[in-house]
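Review session, final week

We close the course with one last complete record, chosen because it touches almost every idea we covered. It is unspecific monooxygenase, a protein from Peromyscus maniculatus bairdii with 490 residues. Go through it on your own first, then we will talk.
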Amino acid sequence: MVLGVFLGLVLSCLLLLSLWRQSSQRRKLPPGPTPLPVIGNILQIDLKNISKSLRDFSKVYGPMFTLYLGRKPAVVLHGYEVVKEALIDHGEEFAGRGTFPVFDKIAKGRGIVFSDGRIWKEMRRFSLVTLRNFGMGKRSIEDRVQEEARCLVEELKKTNGSPCDPTFILGCAPCNVICSIVFQNRFDYKDQEFLTFMNILNENVEILSSPWIQICNNFPALIDYLPGSHRKLLKNFTFSKHYFLAKLIEHQKSLDINNPRDFIDCFLIKMEQEKHNPKTAFTSENLVFSAGDLFAAGTETTSTTLRYSLLLLLKYPEVTAKVQAEIDHVIGRHRSPCMQDRSHMPYTDAVLHEIQRYIDLLPTSLPHSVTCDIKFRNYLIPKGTTVIASLTSMLHDNKEFPNPEKFDPGHFLDENGKFKKSDYFFPFSAGKRICVGEGLARMELFLFLTTILQNFNLKSPVDPKDLDTTAVANGLVSVPPEFQICFIPV
């Protein structure tokens, strides 16, 4: 009896202490809904549509507000002005990586995407330079994408115009491009090793976009003690880690320091140059995770965008017809599209921008954090506080894009039919943490889609009016619904 009373008092004191600390924090941070002890505001957030919840909160609390995801606060930035001010004008202070426990469990701060501080700066700088040297934005990488686009066309011809689910085929093309950069070789679309990797990548995106993973990220203790899809995710990460470790060992055996073949070779050479530096970030662990980051990010985001693009082109055949007419006029039928064509194709350029705006691929991007105590818009944000930037709030801003829920290439065309840029177009995030592969992704999207539309007419087995373009999940990534498509050779 006495023990029970004592434990009750202890728990009550701990609860009061938690409430006092939460209340003390909240006085300095932007306003927000009142959190519950331990679980915070999690019950007030629709985990199947986080963007909608953030939009609703912004109507009450303004463009900057605080949510408690579990016991820890996260400052949410909602709207172009506040996001630009934070990520661009104060880019250095907002360049930290917020915690993402499911990833942190295995990456442990290594690689490019989930690292921080000195390691992140060195991995990002090295990756950008190496990708540039291997042709990102230059002719050589364009040649690789064009070659892969031709392989994609040959693979699509094998469907013989029959209805098919394009998920796998559209994943293979960008995957092969990044494979050629990271470890020099591409795969045949029927290669079993390739099939395994593609299945893992598709599975990971579905799991990461599920409400369960949002819960795991907000309550990390669940990761160790409860079953669930996060276990499969961790297993997939471990498989990928071992795969890239094997590639590293293969490259070490055949390395020629005077003739680097790919990203892994360049990293190994840098490791050798820094082997006497005890603080070097160039370790085999960082190589494995950096290669894995490039592979996953360079494959899945582009393949999902391509898949969503075809769904929208099926849904709006009048848009598709205009793009094909522009392809016929500028490129014709007898040569491959190239990046120089894009500046002469304003309607196609507008369609590609509108696709990325409409699908809102990464609604909240990945979490940031502040790298130091900062006074921002009259609030004091302590070092290490998680910051969530709503990309949806810019891509679907109804003043910049009238009727933002409607797919309309006119959002990026002026009254003369010329392409019109928008400062609100942030599909790759912004500031110091902007996507490393933005240039490659833009190139792939243009070359793959124009090559497909140059060679095929798209046909839906169902009436286009009956096609639903609503994302089936939009946690980390907006995932399009499954659909069937027929590729009819022109």
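Two points worth writing down before the exam:
Residues 15-20 have pLDDT under 50 and may be disordered.
Residues 284-315 form the longest helix (32 residues).
Good luck, everyone.
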